[in-house]
């Protein structure tokens, strides 16, 4: 099988979400705004200067990643299992949700996991909101697509002033139009994003002057916090076109502490070098849910998430990217069960916060198994 033929293999649930955009247009609804903008002009010229851009799109450091399944499984086969194998895909009871994370203390390093990949991080009182998704569905349509399995912890209006909103990539479960538009109205902070994503934000009404776009290894400093975009192994696209914008993990550092936010990524040999260059980290937020053997190049499984946290030099590992949306054919409770087992076997310090819980990284709560209904 040629590389060109393999291009459509192992791209995961996000590809299916992108295909929903096309299906929705066929039903007569204009999904152009949800799909977002198309980079052009000076933005496109800057993208073309990136060492990660060639042949009209962005690429991973490993050029094969995202194209080849680890076991030969095609995306069509994964989609069939996703639609037919529904066993234990939802929680057996109501997910506990707390609201104390809306206002985090102003000293030290604190965070609140808000469900799926949304994280509110406070570094000495300066707050960063990563990958916020407040909508009922992570989809280009308000009527179809994955629906959240628990309520949001609090309204966006309850958020204290933010230093930045940070986005890892443009898939629907990480970049939500309605949430961005609400934050644009309610907050005065900049939006810090990988290259190209500013086109989506501008299409949705965000002023260009509030958008900071970074390539891998580029940084911006906001107050006392320095944010650095670092390489991840994933892909992008909100419609048919593949990799039109960059994807990234993020490093946040200030005198109050340091954190790593994975966004979506597969396991690759860059974690050790990231740890050597930017670590150690007081906390590492690792996306360890929504995995499948066919998606291994672009999605960590729980054991790989623990190994990556070790290589990053994480003093505390926090599993994210599970619980809220069902986007993969695995049981709802598999990510936390496997993550805890791997962390304890490897001696990695970890915390399993409830959704919306405020956590002090210097004094995390004792291990809990709240997901075991």
Helix content: 10-25%
Going by helix content, strand content and strand pairing, the class is: alpha/beta
Instruction: Determine the CATH superfamily of one domain.
Output: Ribonuclease Z/Hydroxyacylglutathione hydrolase-like
Q: What share of the residues does DSSP label as strand, in percent? A: 15-25%
> How many distinct helices?
10
What is the CATH class of one domain? Alpha Beta
Overall form: globular
Question: Number of DSSP strands?
Answer: 15
Q: According to CATH, what is the topology of one domain?
A: Metallo-beta-lactamase, Chain A
Distance between the termini: 45 Å
Q: Are there runs of 5+ residues with pLDDT below 50, and where?
A: 1-13, 24-28
Largest sheet: 7 strands, mixed
Mean pLDDT: 90
| SSE sequence, one letter per element | HHHHEEHEEEEHEHEEEEEHEHEHE
Architecture of one domain in CATH? 4-Layer Sandwich
| Radius of gyration of CA atoms, rounded to a whole number | 19 Å
How is the largest sheet built, in terms of strand order?
8-7-6-5-4-3-15
Short synopsis of the structure:
With 373 residues, the protein is α/β, with parallel strands linked by helices. The protein has helices at residues 3-6, 13-26, 32-35, 41-48, 75-84, 177-186, 198-203, 270-278, 302-312, 334-346; strands spanning 53-54, 57-58, 109-113, 119-123, 126-130, 164-166, 191-194, 211-214, 219-222, 225-230, 249-254, 257-261, 283-287, 317-320, 358-360.
């Amino acid at each position: 099988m040629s590389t060109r033929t393999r291009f459509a293999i192992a791209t995961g649930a996000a590809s299916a979400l992108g295909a929903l955009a096309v299906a929705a247009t066929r039903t007569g609804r204009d999904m152009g705004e949800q799909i977002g903008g198309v980079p052009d002009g000076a933005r496109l010229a800057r993208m073309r200067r990136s060492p990660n851009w060639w042949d009209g799109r962005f690429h991973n450091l490993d050029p094969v990643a995202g194209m080849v399944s680890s076991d030969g499984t095609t995306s069509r086969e994964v989609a069939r299992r996703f639609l037919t194998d529904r066993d234990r895909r939802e929680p057996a009871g109501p997910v506990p949700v707390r609201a104390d994370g809306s206002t985090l203390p102003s000293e030290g390093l604190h965070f609140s996991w808000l469900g799926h990949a949304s994280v509110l991080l406070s570094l000495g009182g300066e707050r960063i909101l990563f990958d916020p998704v407040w909508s009922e569905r992570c989809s280009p349509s308000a009527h179809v697509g994955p629906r959240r399995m628990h309520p949001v912890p609090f309204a966006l209006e309850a958020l204290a002033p933010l230093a930045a909103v940070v986005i890892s990539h443009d898939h629907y479960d990480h970049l939500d139009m309605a949430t961005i538009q609400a934050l644009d109205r309610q907050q005065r902070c900049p939006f810090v994003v990988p290259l190209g994503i500013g086109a989506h934000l501008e299409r949705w009404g965000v002023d260009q002057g509030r958008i900071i776009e970074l390539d891998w290894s580029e940084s911006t400093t906001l107050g006392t916090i320095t944010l650095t975009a670092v390489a991840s192994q994933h892909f992008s696209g909100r419609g048919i076109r593949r990799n039109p914008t960059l994807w990234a993990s993020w490093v946040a550092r200030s005198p109050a502490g340091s954190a790593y936010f994975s966004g979506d990524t597969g396991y690759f040999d860059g974690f050790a070098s990231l740890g050597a260059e930017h670590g150690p980290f007081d906390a590492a937020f690792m996306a360890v849910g929504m995995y499948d053997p066919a998606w291994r190049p672009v999605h960590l499984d729980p054991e790989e998430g623990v190994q990556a946290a070790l290589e990053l030099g994480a003093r505390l590992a926090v599993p994210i990217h599970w619980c809220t949306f069902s986007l993969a054919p695995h049981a709802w409770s598999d990510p936390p069960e496997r993550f805890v087992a791997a962390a304890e076997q490897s001696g990695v310090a970890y915390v399993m916060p409830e959704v919306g819980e405020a956590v002090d990284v210097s004094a995390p709560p004792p291990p809990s198994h709240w997901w075991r209904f």
